[in-house]
Amino acid sequence: MCVHPGVYLRVVPTWTTPERPEPPNNPVDERAALEDRLEYQRTTLLLKCGGLTPEQLAERSVPPSSLSLLGLVRHMSGVEAWFHSYDGQPDHMFFWNYVPGATDGFGGISAARAADDLASYQASVERSRDAVRDRGLDEAIPGEDYTLRWIYLHMIEEYARHNGHADLLRERIDGATGE
């Protein structure tokens, strides 16, 4: 972007702010209610990141905590693996560390990899949706006691907790608040 003859500013891309529809007040059944609430929480996390630059996403804005918005997105990429257990495929190989089974994601944050981290998150969520599409809520993870119903409830809880963290991080970054 040229702001004065011969003077150029680097345009830093920001993450897109997604649309977030409200879940229906009267879902058609339990499965729809769980899916709608989980999608709402997933979108809320991306909403908290919307409009920020990679550098802002990587900022650890509440010292001494190592949390960052980008770290939360990376962490949730790994936590989505609860659902992946249903498809019988190898663990998702995350862009951020390539360690099967790792769900942390808070260390080694790099603004330069923000687009890769978003792509990894989106791939992990899509795999989650595909892995459980035809599964019943009472169906347990192979070899485990956790049912799909429990996993949905756990994931809604996990996102809600981390979306609270995202609220605080975002407010410290640019003052933005809201649901």
From TrEMBL:
It comes from the Bacteria. InterPro entries: DinB/YfiT-like, MST-like. It holds the Pfam family MST. This is DinB family protein. The lineage of its organism: Bacteria, Bacillati, Actinomycetota, Actinomycetes, Propionibacteriales.
